[in-house]
Amino acid sequence: MAAAQHSSLFLGFDFSTQQLKVVALDESLNVVHQNNVQFDSDLPEFRTQGGVHIHADRLTVTSPVLMWVKALDMLLDKMKEAGFDFSRVKALSGSGQQHGSVFWTRGASETLKNLQPDQSLETLFSVLASPVWMDSSSRQQCDALQEAAGGALRLAHITGSTAYEVGGNFAASLFLGGYAAIDYSDGSGMNLLDIRSRNWSQICLEAVSPQLDLLLGDPKPSSSILGPVSSYFVQRYGFSESCRVVAFTGDNPASLAGMRLQQGDIAVSLGTSDTVFLWIADPRPALQGHVFCNPVREQAFMALLCFKNGSLTRERIRNQCAGASWELFSAALRDTPLGNGGNIGFYFDSQEITPPAVGVHLFDPQDVQVCSFSPQVEVRSLVEGQFLSRRLHAERLGYSIIPGTRVLATGGASSNKDILQVLSDVFNAPVFTLDVSNSACLGSAYRALHGLSAESGASFFDVVKNAPEPQLAATPHPEAKEVHTHTHTHTHTHTHTYTHTHTLRQFFLLFLTVSWFKPHSNNYLFLLQVYDQMLQRYARLEERVLQKSRP
Question: Region (Disordered) spans which residues (predicted)?
Fold first, then answer.
């Protein structure tokens, strides 16, 4: 017990939209302390709602940068009052929302270096209202950046994304007592970094401001130790002078680290909006989604996809088709066949992000658009359609399902086993659940620990191998992997796609089998994947939906 009380600790911070959070881990990766500051309630003098100020034009959305600074002091004070021993902290790291901006004044680095506990920080910042990820006021500048790069797709190939409002973070600079280098992963969310060379793109820099690279400094690997914690934190809170600051990153890369995604894995967050995190080796940047440098393996990449129509749409269909009962909703999924008899639906109650479409669009097995489905078919149409969309757009960014692929499910809907069963079937991979309520914090703490070991050659996964494992929640039905598929034509004949591995016996069975398979049936016959063919249909139908949605 005495040894545990004196073991090394590692801190992970997350400067999110509505709060500042911290997690402390010991050397065995146990969470020994958690704390937070809620911006609206704990710092009411800044008069934010949801942590932000929405301006009159409805495009400009900012947060007071001094609120973030004060929140950090308040959080550390709360930890000190709780008896937290800062002298045991060997390293710290953190994350900031993507994409937000902080603008330092000239000479701020020298002020940070000599910062005193009673000193006002207002003079450090040239802009006190920092644009946050919700801000859309720089659309004109984004368009100009895209044009300078040779178009939206060309910009995506260079930087990993089409132009979004430029972002960065400043928290590492506060801890370091000087300007902190930007890590590869967060830098690749700024539309300024060439994600393949890991250097600033001269094309993009020239489009924004000549010699901007002199202000940004050289980007660094995400595991880099930036230096020791500043004397301000040593004197005020009792940090050890040997405590190291590991490069901070964006909240999305930090979440990937917190979930410990590996090559071939995909994480699906099922919330108000659905978010998909991907580990990819060979990215294919597209007009939808973001590609970042991977925060835990330097030569790999990660991707992020956002889907606006998530749980609210699932709840609407539950209310409309299942009597507002999740039990009846689940029963409908269990009682309808894999592939839904060829019926496919697109449910974009609100203007969707991925893809940019709106409205409800239903198609029968002959690809004829229809007005409605039966309630049970509608339930499966929604859930299968959502997960087909997640897989389609993931694969367009370069994701591929490989042996050992895992799907990690989080968020409110991950508690529904029948929804997870469909997710497992569509991706033909086991689904695991894990608690990631503090994934960005946890990932930052993991990265702090890894930063101390990276120079000796230890991989991120060597460092976190003893962390709690996710729980298996669903495995693919055999039918999802091996059932035949067929596309109904207008004459009700069946066309099939099959692989070169078919035996002569399978060839004859292909023509003998004419029914869609129900879940749990045992008459699956050959190695044809139902959702692979559905995915091709879904892609064709999505293009039709997009054509209708375009002005």
Answer: 475-496
Let me know whether 157 and 214 are in one domain.
yes
Q: Return d(Cα 229, Cα 448) in angstroms, integer.
A: 13
Contacts of 307 (CB under 8 A, 6+ apart): 273, 274, 275, 276, 352, 353, 354, 386, 389, 390
| Token pair recorded at residue 113 | 């270096």
Cis peptide upstream of residue 33 (ω within 30 degrees of 0): no
Cβ neighbors of 286 (< 8 A, separation 6 or more) are 153, 156, 393, 396, 397
State how far the Cα of 17 lies from the Cα of 130, in Å rounded to an integer.
12
Beta bridge partners of 363: 344, 369
Tell me if 266 sits within 8 A of 399, measured CB to CB: yes
Q: Could you give the CA distance from residue 142 to residue 450 in angstroms, rounded to a whole number? A: 35
Which among 51, 69, 291 has a CA at the least distance from the CA of 160? 291
Phi, psi of 134 (to 5 degrees): -80, -10
Backbone angles phi, psi at 290, to 5 degrees: -130, 140
Which pLDDT score is estimated for 482?
46
Q: Judge if the upstream peptide bond of residue 519 is cis by omega within 30 degrees of 0.
A: no
On whether both 237 and 100 belong to a single domain, the answer is yes
DSSP lists the bridge partners of residue 19 as 38
- Are residues 351 and 549 in contact, defined by beta-carbon separation less than 8 angstroms? no
Residues 233 and 91 grouped into a single domain:
yes
Domain count, the chain: 2
What is the longest distance spanned by two Cα atoms in the chain? Answer: 83
Does the pLDDT at position 318 exceed 70?
yes
206 and 86 in a single domain? The answer is: no
**What is the percent of the chain with per-residue pLDDT over 90, rounded to a whole number?**
50
For residue 164, what are the domain limits?
A: 135-168+184-219
Q: What is the pLDDT of residues 24-77, one digit of tens each?
A: 999 999 999 999 999 999 999 999 888 888 888 877 888 888 898 899 999 999
Same domain as 159, residue 61: no
DSSP string of 29-48, one letter each residue: --EEEEEEEEHHHH-GGG--
Rounding to the nearest 10 degrees, give the CA dihedral for residues 232, 238, 244, 246.
Answer: -70
The string of pLDDT tens digits covering residues 152-177 is 666 666 666 544 433 346 889 889 99
Of 405, 153, 439, 163, nearest to 281 by C-alpha is 405
> Does residue 366 lie within any of the structural domains?
no
Q: What is the pLDDT of residue 2?
A: 43
Backbone φ/ψ region at 411: left (φ over 0), alpha (ψ -120 to 50), beta? left
Residue 123, token pair as written in the block: 């003079």
Are residues 33 and 91 located together in one domain of the fold? yes
Q: What pairing do the DSSP bridges indicate for beta strands 407-410 and 266-270? A: parallel
- Residue 390 above 90 pLDDT? yes
Rounded to an integer, what distance in angstroms lies between the CA atom of residue 378 and that of residue 346? Answer: 10
CA distance 346 to 389: 9
